[in-house]
Amino acid sequence: MRPPLRAVAALAAVAALVTGCGFGGDWSQPHAKPIAIGTLGAGFVDPSSTPSPEATITPRPGSWTDVHPSKDYRVVLLTTGDDPPTRTLVAAIEDWAEEEHVDLRTVVADHPYDLVPSITSALDMGPDLIVSAGDDLVDPLALVTASHLAQRFLVVGAELAEPTHNVTAVDWSGASFRGEGLGMASAYDPASFTPARCAAAVRAGVAAVLNNLTGIVIWLDEL
Fold this sequence. Notes:
The chain is of the alpha/beta class. The protein is built from 5 helices and 10 strands, in the order αβββββαβαβαββαβ. The relative contact order is 0.18.
């Protein structure tokens, strides 16, 4: 018996959500826990203390550049929206993944009602890290992340209002969207989403995650 057209359309929509970069293999198979290759430079954090949950740190520019992910780092790019800031963020994440030989898969939410299901799709893939790009994901992430504490998330160009320890954010003046009802922590400026700033944000955020500095906000006004 032929499946209903609605079911076929739903399956096609899900299939269209996920794309891959082609660096890695079968994610259903276990792999070694990712580690940081290289060390954080002076000034990334105060070496005498660990940042408290939800703290904001301002690392010294470039203090993250010597940190790289180990082989077979599995990352899902979760994104929505086609505005210029989001496109710049997505390009920065894809460029980083190619340069670092990261196994990157992409989940795109094309409709407001697809946001939470898209996060669920990303979770079901079992990545080492989920990186989000797009302000519309902030509120859905706030609903989902606290129930999946073993999964690490990196939010770039925005932040959750009350992140759990598994959610790290990277922001700067001109970004900092924190969800409906909270709005911007600073004046929103699409022009602040430059390729250089977005590239630095991705690398600084990943460097923090790989060094277990999570649940914090990384502030990058200086590059």
